[in-house]
Design goal:
Immunoglobulin-like, five-stranded mixed β-sheet
């Protein structure tokens, strides 16, 4: 019997361990290639695996690189042999600014209100340049990095070097690399179009050796649409040129201020002809052209009239929301699909807040983009699919879902809303089998605690075996348990008075007293959560909105106070990760939080 019991425990632990490993959240950083030449591109990828409610991914310091493209987002859910895994990744295409050995530091991801650090990375960049044909393969803009022009669409005679003319003089007069934009001033989130063009009247083979970086912008490249006809004709300073588009992108500023668009560099092998004793002699000359950088003045969005639920959306939008099914059973997973259509910074939109009815449990949101990247601003739609479960039968109403954006044309904020959505929940038939999609998404409170319950059962079995084989040990354990219970009771009796005396928002108050309070929301979030953890005896590592709501209901806190608590947690968290002024509305939220703490103490 003893041998059987030992084998049972070993098998039990193996199953529990396997369950934990399969669902563990991971944050991984990779870079390819890890050894590169100075003129090569590398791809940095930041991936969160098996993470729920990913609210932010912060890249490492990339000041040693030009950000050629990114962040580009990818989301997927995989189901292999019944094991569900999901990941969200951001990728950046980078070009090193110099040779050397680089350590790329940790990135940070915020998953279910918990911070994760990625691994650091090593990158070796050599001074040796790869050949031009290799560079093209590495470049994300290969179709534009090299173009052979032995016979341009329009021939000019400027390649003939006349007597007394110099090569620098010929190049300066007949070949220019220029950066052009459709505007030099814009709002945060309003796109500008940057185009790098080669104007030439000479015969050349050219390759892009320095791709411009766009730090401070979200980048959408649109130059691919010129693949079939890269050559056009334009007049510059009264002279006609063959014109080639090297790169064209729409850039969405992420922050206000003066931001520099970097220069591009182009290596050119130019063919000249000169008269040598009555004979035409051709020769080649290598010349590097560089465009001039440009400053873009980015204006902050106005504070006047900014809605509380504004999250940085700029453009013109419409919103719609539908249910996958309007009637579901209590053992089914429903799905709410919110779709935002229009033009603007669609790639940066986040899911609007949904005021779920009581006893609705939403799960991780999946976003689906359907964008026309050649339109400026971006046009198309972005959908947010939110699975959910319900345990209460009857007719329920999901209130209108609000979405606010800044309209560039009218320079005003606008708020739009969906219609209320009704859903009927019916009791499941006892014999009904759970649908497969529930396996992928549904994690009820009991399932989330399954590992803890299993360990508790295991601990109980071990304790009972010790009691059975050693009565003396049982007596000692009983005595210690009595002492422990008395200590716990004493602690609970003291706790209320300590809560009353302690100022849980002390650090937030000190920050507000300082004119330069940069971490106000971060401090308010940390201190408010600490109060709730201590007040309702919630394990810090298991803190979540669902856990707090359940803990408050267990001690019969009024529903109005529970809803106020959840509202404040969501508001503070939303402000914390918004790409806007970090201290907007901080005093108001601080006062509301302080009043709530006093009422709960």
């Amino acid at each position: 019997m003893n041998h059987f019991f030992t084998k049972f425990i070993a098998l039990f632990l193996f199953v529990v361990h396997t369950n934990i490993v399969q669902s563990q959240t991971k944050f991984i950083a990779t870079i390819t290639p890890s050894n590169a030449a100075i003129n090569e591109y590398v791809t940095l990828k930041l991936t969160v695996e098996n993470g729920e409610n990913i609210t932010q991914i912060i890249p490492p310091n990339l000041s040693e690189f030009d950000v050629v493209s990114g962040p580009n987002q990818e989301t997927a859910v995989n189901n292999v042999n019944g094991i569900v895994s999901q990941y969200v990744s951001l990728s950046y295409i980078l070009q090193p600014k110099k040779a050397g050995n680089f350590i790329i530091g940790n990135a940070t991801a915020v998953v279910s209100q918990k911070k994760y650090k990625s691994n650091s990375l090593k990158l070796v960049v050599s001074n040796k340049k790869v050949p031009n044909n290799s560079t093209v393969n590495q470049s994300p803009f290969a179709a534009f990095d090299m173009f052979d022009e032995p016979t341009p669409q329009k021939q000019y005679e400027d390649y003939v070097l006349q007597k007394g003319e110099t090569i620098p003089e010929k190049v300066n007069k007949n070949m220019q690399l220029k950066l052009q934009t459709n505007k030099n001033t814009c709002f945060v989130g309003e796109p500008i179009v940057a185009t790098y063009k080669l104007y030439t009247r000479l015969k050349s083979e050219s390759s892009l050796t320095k791709n411009p970086g766009f730090n401070g912008f979200s980048v959408i490249d649109i130059a691919q649409q010129f693949n079939q006809n890269p050559n056009t004709h334009e007049t510059l300073n009264g002279r006609e040129y063959n014109v080639y588009i090297i790169r064209k992108a729409q850039l969405y500023p992420l922050q206000p201020g003066d931001i520099e668009l970097e220069s591009a560099s182009l290596d050119n092998k130019i063919t000249f002809v000169k008269n040598n004793n009555g004979n035409a002699e051709a020769f080649e000359e290598n010349v590097t052209l560089q465009s001039k950088p440009m400053i873009i003045h980015v204006k902050p969005l106005p504070e006047f009239g900014k809605p509380n639920n504004f999250s940085g959306s700029v453009g013109k939008f419409e919103i719609d929301a539908v249910l996958e099914k309007n009637i579901i059973t209590t053992d089914e997973t429903g799905k709410l699909i919110i779709t935002i259509l229009g033009t603007g910074n669609l790639q940066l939109l986040t899911s609007p807040t949904v005021e779920w009815p009581n006893n609705f449990e939403p799960f991780e949101t999946k976003s689906v983009d359907n964008l026309n990247v050649n339109n400026v601003p971006l046009s198309g739609s972005k959908s947010f699919e939110i699975p959910f479960s319900v345990i209460d039968t009857g007719l329920h109403i999901i209130p209108p879902i609000l979405f606010s954006y800044f309209d560039i044309v009218s320079s005003t904020y606008k708020t739009i809303a969906t219609k209320p959505i009704s859903i009927n929940i019916v009791k499941a038939v006892a014999s009904k089998i759970t649908k497969p999609d529930i396996k992928a998404y549904k994690k009820t409170f009991i399932e989330k605690w399954s590992t803890t319950i299993l360990f508790a059962v295991l601990l109980f079995l071990v304790l009972m075996s010790l009691i059975f084989f050693n009565k003396k040990t049982k007596n000692k354990i009983g005595k210690k348990n009595i002492e422990l219970n008395e200590a716990v009771i004493a602690k609970k009796n003291i706790l209320p008075s300590l809560l009353h005396e302690k100022n849980y928002l002390l650090k937030t108050e000190q920050c507000l007293a300082n004119n330069n309070c940069n971490k106000g929301y971060e401090l308010l979030s940390t201190e408010f959560k600490q109060f709730l953890v201590e007040k309702f005896n919630t394990p810090d590592e298991m803190f979540s909105l669902e856990m707090i709501e359940l803990s408050m209901k267990e001690v019969f806190v009024e529903n109005a106070k529970i809803q106020q608590t959840l509202y404040l947690l969501k508001e503070i968290e939303q402000k914390l990760y918004m790409p806007i002024d970090k201290n907007e509305g901080l005093v108001k939220l601080y006062n509301e939080t302080k009043s709530l703490i006093l009422s709960l103490s």
